[in-house]
Design a protein that fits this description.
The complex is a heterodimer. Chain A is of the alpha+beta class. Chain A is 54% helix and 13% strand. In chain A, α1 packs parallel to α3 and α3 packs across α6 (179-214). The chains are: A alpha+beta, B alpha+beta.
Chain lengths: 325, 390
Amino acid sequence: MDLYPSDEQRELSAAVRDVLAGAAPMDGATGSDDAWSVAAGQGWFALGLDEADGGLGGTLADEAQVFAQIGAAAAAGPFLATNLAARVAAVAGERALADGLAAGALRAAHAFGSHDDRFTAFDARGAGVLLLVDEERSRLRLYGLADRDIVDDLSPMDPAVTVARVGLDRAEVLAEITGADADAVLVRASVLVAAMLSGVATAATSMSVEYAKIREQFGRPIGAFQAISHRCAEMAIRSNAASAVVDLAAVSVDEGHPDLRRRVAAARRFTGSSALENARVNIQNHGAIGFTWEHGAHRLLKRARFLGLGFQPRDLQTEVLVGTG
Amino acid sequence: MRLQLNSREREFQERAADWLSDNVPTADRPPSGPAMVDFDRAWQRRQYDGGWAGVSWPSEFGGAGLSLTEQILWYEQCARFDAPEPGVFNIALGHAGPTLIVEGSEAQKHDHLGPILRGEEIWAQGFSEPGAGSDLASLRMRAVRDGDDLVVNGSKIWTTKASVSDWQELLVRTDPEAARHHGLSFLIVALDTPGIEVRPITTMDGDTPFAEVFYDDVRIPLANVVGRLGDGWKVAMTTLGLERGTMTLGMVIRLLKLIDQVRELAATRVDRRGRAMLANDEVAAAIADIESEGVALYALALAFVSEVVRTGKAGPKGSMVRPFYAELSQRVKRLGADLLDREGLTVDGSAAAAEFVPSYLYSFAHTIGTGTSEVQRNVIAQRVLGLPRG
């Protein structure tokens, strides 16, 4: 019984943080190709795949460390969709496709839904594959995607993604998994989204704490005022708990714990509300500067909203947690 | 990271589970009075006879001499088996004993550790004063040296279980010139010493869990000073985080069980229109929220105790578990009371009312006792996050 990250996990976490700090700074330079190629080189997309499938054989808990840092950096780029698409391809037995995604040579866009043939897709520009997610029917499909499938470019609320309307009438299905296979990938997706959200919550805490130490008003640092310092303490409780519950959920999946679905839903819900609340409070703690485009605070808020509406949104969490699903 | 137990932990856990399934009392704990005290004494004695009292306490003083991991697993198993909590032995087991183990003289350890583990000594804490609550370091109660004794005058307040306790930990000012945290000393006092008067205080739930204690020229031998004169603050704080740490997981598991009960309440009751409460989206979302917070608290507690076991120190997460636990516990109990609707307007009108209404009323203590939520936030802000003092 030990929920203390290993030395290797901490090194991994620090390595990812360094890559993103250099290549995707919070001040707006987003989605650089440098970060993507370093990420691919470090195996961020292949980390959790079995060695037999061309992966590195890491655990979901290892992957969660990586994605927490991606969330914390508010990094642009389809890191999560590409990681998941590689797994879908591997499970479907499409080895060449899996290899291309795992190596970062192919990027995956993603979209949610099932009924139409028009979808709002994220990060579709420049992607070679679209991961279509149908949580209701437990189906995950990979479509070949090209720019000709893009019907309309939209303006994203979250600057870390691009949004487009795509038509899939001409797109080819490259791989599909359903049922228990799809559920297993969706559970991992929830954990990794939760990890990214915990990173957002943690980054907001650090940003507020650092600012509260240096910003002076009324002749002293604003962190000396309880209105600010207590909010920072609450942020720290939320981000520490968010990070712990992600680790708990990830290890529960890795070990096949009987309660894993409930723990994953709990992690997903807790990190979602913590990220949103910390990002909100972080803007308030910064005053007017926090309301500007130039400052990174809004990026965390927008990440929290985007990711919060991603895999396993609130109504699906409730079904698992109260047992009505 | 791993959640599965290793073979040593599993073997211990199985032994603990076997013993608990045979020995946990089947009768409910009486809510108050001498019957409650007898119940707690009997349960403590039973654990001692079974070799389960003081799992991590030194074996030369009657403990089992095992590691912190086993101590944590023991409290965890007790919670899973709904074993009685330490009750009136809370301070003795959770603070006084552990403090004596680290700071006590050989004579003090010999005199008290065995009796505590055997259920023979109940302890109270005497820290807060009418003028020193959150600002504990401003306490004023004086102890003046006279020969081989200290003579104590003044009063303490919010002393839990004072009227049934045999001994008390007492934090007093022995050097009036020294500032705040300095000049305090930590004493142990027999509560039947002449000059001590205990006046119970009735709390908002109608109970009398604590008291104000008055000291009128009470003579305490110097041999009862723990550590050195003037080191009282350090002595009082020595084991605060660590020992609480080992009890944390058990405490959290009991809260998770209460959350299950609240969900069960929502699942089995109908609203005023006759519909299942859980079918109401608002109720379902509220249940899902407390469930997810419960799992998050469990994870934080597990991360905290993992750190305690790995490093032997109570790290920063320790100061976060307490306010999270206290505030979630309050929300859970309030939701329980809310689900009762008008049935919750009595404290004894139904089994559910008796279960949820008194605990709702008591829950207001969670964010006040052992440091108010505001003080806990100050501690996190200043000591963990490094923010400046106000």
